[in-house]
Amino acid sequence: MRTLQQPTLRSGARRGVFTPCSRNMQRILATAAHADIRREAMLRVPLEKAHTFNAKFVPFTDIQTSNTSSEFYSLDDVVYRSRDGGLLDVHHDMKALSQYGPEYWRALFDARVGTTAWPFGSGVWSKKEWVLPGLSDDDIVSMFEGNSNLFWAERFGKEALGMTDLWVKQCGNSHTGSFKDLGMTVLVSQVNRIRKLKPGSITAVGCASTGDTSAALSAYCAAAGIPSIVFLPADKISLAQLVQPIANGALVLSIDTDFDGCMRLIKQVTAETPIYLANSMNSLRLEGQKTAAIEILQQFDWQVPDWVIIPGGNLGNIYAFYKGFKMCKELGLVDKMPRLVCAQAQNANPLYQAFHKAQGVSQIKESYQAVKAKTTFASAIQIGDPVSIDRAIMALQDANGIVEEASEEELMDAAARADRTGMFNCPHTGVALAALLKLRERQIIGPNDRTVVVSTAHGLKFAQSKVAYHSKSVPNMTCQFANPPVQVKEDLGAVMDAIKAKFSL
Ligand SMILES: Cc1ncc(COP(=O)(O)O)c(C=O)c1O
Ligand SMILES: N[C@@H](CCOP(=O)(O)O)C(=O)O
């Protein structure tokens, strides 16, 4: 049987220096890779059956009800809502994709891992046919995002949870330090295309943000030379997050409200101006984010984990993961879905409240109500009126899902405890880890269940809260895993005393 060939030529390698491939070389390699894919496809699919892959916006209600209404939009249209005001979804021609068979897709995706060929070295664009198949490679704005490591949490699993098969998907190990890069490469690439196709149609790209979306938006726009605008809730995001869009040259509006207030404003502004909406209400973002789920399957050699735990705020990501897993199942790459857990901070928990009230996911929609989110260390998920609530409900209902919550102390303790086993978690990952601790305690998750916790941001973005925890300066919190630095004079005796005290020498 023929195997897919991976291009091996890397520019600079022959000269003995390390340089990334030039754009030109990357294009040559990409063309070679494309040619391979086309040749392979021809071998496998009778010509008369061959389809062109394509994708379009359809009303999300069509996805929910498996109906096909006549309403659809080109991805080149500037549109965020369906005629009845509902959400949209990017719909792929699944029939065309299914012509190629699961082995073809598995081999193709696997062959692209680690390549420098433009744009397939990106974990997102390595799945281009499933993301934005109609986009020209020249329009792609990518930092070779994705392909994040899956950390085997061996010590934390064993010591804290009695688990053998616990993994943390490190989506925060990324260009701007969060999973948002996965979605933003797709959205900004599509904007890049639209601006070329229809000059003057998009002046700038804007978002409301709790810090990570704005960082990703401003970086990708800066790389493409596209102006960006970010609406931030004043004094509610970390310093590291605030400085990112400032450094990348975005127009930064620090607004005296919370995230939900910023979201209301950006919706109005993008409805009335040629400013394009970059929040996950825009379903283009979710096409990129869903590739993290496909990557998890790939990293397990296409074995499906039992559980995937995802921190939830605006609730786009839980649906994105669901969609990634679902596409793999529908196209036969795997034979089942993992169970999904959405983990919320107790101080911003509208979905958890509905789940608790409805005692499960089946009646969750009827019990749902937006809330006023309170301050939480998990500041990026301090959201009370999530835009993607309908998407999240569908994902949880179809994936036999669960919603769990974590108090401030629980999330900070869980993050700190896991840090002691080699991680460096953001508070949102702490929410997911705390949810796991509770689900293990109640024996809902078993000791040998293969479980993936999705780490959504890099801990370094949240150094301030870690410093507060480790210096035990958080009011009403014991900070049981704090490890404060020991102040010592420049004196050998004092240094020896500190070491002896620690190691009982
Ligand atoms: C670090 C981090 N974790 C989790 C989330 C939650 O993702 P979503 O809003 O898609 O639910 C966000 C953003 O909302 C985030 O920035
Ligand atoms: N945590 C997000 C909140 C906005 O979510 P989005 O996915 O809708 O952009 C952020 O970092 O801003």
TrEMBL record:
Q: Which cofactor does it need?
A: pyridoxal 5'-phosphate
Q: What GO molecular functions are on record for this protein?
A: threonine synthase activity
Q: Where is the Tryptophan synthase beta chain-like PALP domain?
A: 141-456
| Residues annotated with N6-(pyridoxal phosphate)lysine modification | 180
* Gene Ontology CC: one annotated term: chloroplast
Query: Its catalytic activity?
Result: O-phospho-L-homoserine + H2O = L-threonine + phosphate
As recorded in UniProt, its EC number(s) are 4.2.3.1
Q: What is its main location?
A: plastid
**Signal sequence bounds:** none
At the top level, the lineage of the source is Eukaryota
Q: Relate the protein's function as given in its record.
A: Catalyzes the gamma-elimination of phosphate from L-phosphohomoserine and the beta-addition of water to produce L-threonine.
Q: What NCBIfam families does the annotation carry?
A: thrC
The UniProt subunit note reads as follows: Homodimer.
Under which name does UniProt file this protein?
threonine synthase
Organism from which the protein derives? Volvox carteri f. nagariensis
